[in-house]
Amino acid sequence: MNRRQVLAVVGARAGVSGGYFAWDWYQSPSLPDGMDVDTLYVTGNVFGEPAREHHDVGPRDEYHRTIEDGEAAGSEIIFDDSAMAFAEETDFDDAYLIVVQTGMQTDPDLALKTISRTDDGLYLNVVVEHPWWRGVDDDLRTHSLLIKITDEKDDSPESVSVNSEEIRLNGIFTSHFP
Known about the structure:
Low-confidence stretches: 17-26, 167-178
Number of strands: 8
Number of domains: 2
Oligomer: single chain
Mean pLDDT: 78
Shape: globular
Helix content: 10-25%
């Protein structure tokens, strides 16, 4: 084989794999030192479908809850097999769950963008990612993001505040809503 061909193949493979790892790094949330996070996105209300009265999420409403033990997780997270398995697999001696919910159209997804520490807890920035083809669906649906946090520096936080940020994946607009 010609040296130029070998170098071209090796360079192309390195570029593709480097691009993949760069994209993966870019997509991962920004976290404080000593913190490890795993997330699960679910279309639906993990606290019960249809929503229980005290877990009803309206349009553009945001609800979040911290779950610190397995018993609470088992009794509260009762919808979607993947969400129940995610909660069951959590080692609550070392980790805790934060469930963030919002009411919006069916198509967008929730994703964790950043976590930062505050004086008495955590600040989470969650993004609402719209697909590039943005449909015209106006059906209201509860979206749930389960965030499993293992923090070497702190136990579960005293307070959690969440900011939901709406973005469109093709970058045409961004808007913030409470």
